[in-house]
Amino acid sequence: MATALLSVSDKTGIVDFAKELKSLGWNIISSGGTAKTLENNKIECAEISEITGFPEILDGRVKTLNPKIHGGILAIRDKKSHIEELQKHGIGKIDIVAVSLYPFEETINKIPKPEDKKIAQEIIENIDIGGVALLRAAAKNYKDVIVICDANDYKAVIDGLKNNSIDEELKITLAAKAFRHTAYYDSLISNYLTYEKFPSHAAIPLKKLSGMRYGENPHQEAALYGNGTEQNKPAAISAKQLHGKELSYNNYLDLEAAWRLVHEFTVPACAIIKHNNPCGCAEGTDIKDAYLKALACDSVSAFGGIVAFNKAVEEDAARELAKLFVECVIAPDFSLAALEILMQKKNIRLLKQEIPYKEEKNAIEYRMMTSGMLVQDRDNRILSEIKDMSARKPTKEESEALDFAWKVCKHVKSNAIILARGRQTVGIGAGQMSRIDSLQIALKKMKEASIPIDEKAYSLVLASDAFFPFPDVVETSAKAGVTAIIQPGGSIKDQDSINAANAAAIAMVSTGMRHFKH
Prior knowledge:
CATH topology of the largest domain: Rossmann fold
CATH class of the largest domain: Alpha Beta
Strand content: 15-25%
Number of domains: 3
Helix content: 25-40%
Strand order of the largest sheet: 8-13-12-11-9-10
Distance between the termini: 62 Å
Radius of gyration: 30 Å
Number of helices: 18
Number of strands: 21
CATH architecture of the largest domain: 3-Layer(aba) Sandwich
Largest sheet: 6 strands, mixed
């Protein structure tokens, strides 16, 4: 008779699977917890200790790590010497191994990683040893042993056994799945226990969340994966979709950009993103006010864009949003009246993320390259220290506007130039090879912007994500009416730009920190 070893932490489906195996004439051996479940359901099985002749020890830390178990799994069936060794040592063959591992992932998402490196004992006890060894052994010997690490595969195996249709293709598929599962599991553990920022070896625990219709373009296949160690962290990827069709690859990229930008601000704010760059951003007296100000910066580009708010969307804001075609709206919440209005638009995606985005102190980010990956600290700081560069210091109003513009600038692709009045963008130049070209685009956008007359009473300020190698940006800004500039400073030609600022009575300050974004 064939033998199956069942040892599962998650008991979902195991009773029905075991019943099917018994009906097909299989023997079952099992570990303590699983054995009790089967016995409680009147399913005959032998406990591991009966097979090994050795009891579970160390509070269950050691139970399946035994030659009478692993020998029965790893023996190559058509190798005569292996079969003779099994017979010599009284070891029976094990033909199916079904294992679900201790819930390490669920545990670490309940217990945050401690900064003081004092790992909770509950975490340690949820590191599975025997289960991983069983899966790897069975997967290694997949030609002779069926390995199952996912309850969703029970039916396929039973159907295959009944129809005598289990072939090598299914076996290798299950084996590959088992190795992926243990690799993911180990990567969760290594990430949780690692405090070194850039270790010599790194594994990122990625879990597929969904497929996608396509990637950036229709000819590119795509899927969405989540980091298993960061499931509880606030992000666009974990927002709850309340309405609308499936999110696209580009939607997710823009949602992430919008969500991160809008949470630079604590008062009501709105960010409108198009192709991963803001085309408008503003603070306001309320969400409606912030949205209208953000929209005024570039209402043409906002068409088909992504809109993010840092406060709940109410009815008045929803009525304004409904006037424009937007792909997605993400906010901490939506009032019932707002949802009723927005849900009348069939294709708009509405996402609710209650937890505000917060840059983590030691967060790192990854960027794929051909055959490799770049890893760096996330750009989670704003500035080093504000220093006056010019003879004239900025006024209080200019300082507030510069602070706002600098925060927006951090989220714009380089070379980035932001023009702002008060707490509102009026022109954005992004992603140009030349800084003066970015300024020309920002000025063009400002000329086309529908900024109300009373808003133009605010001084016009400029933010640049990196220093000025030449005075041309300052000189052109002066002609456009800019009265204050914020930039990192640090160019060997800083004095040329300072002289240009002084000549035009422009207040210019440095941050000591640039924000390149590629």
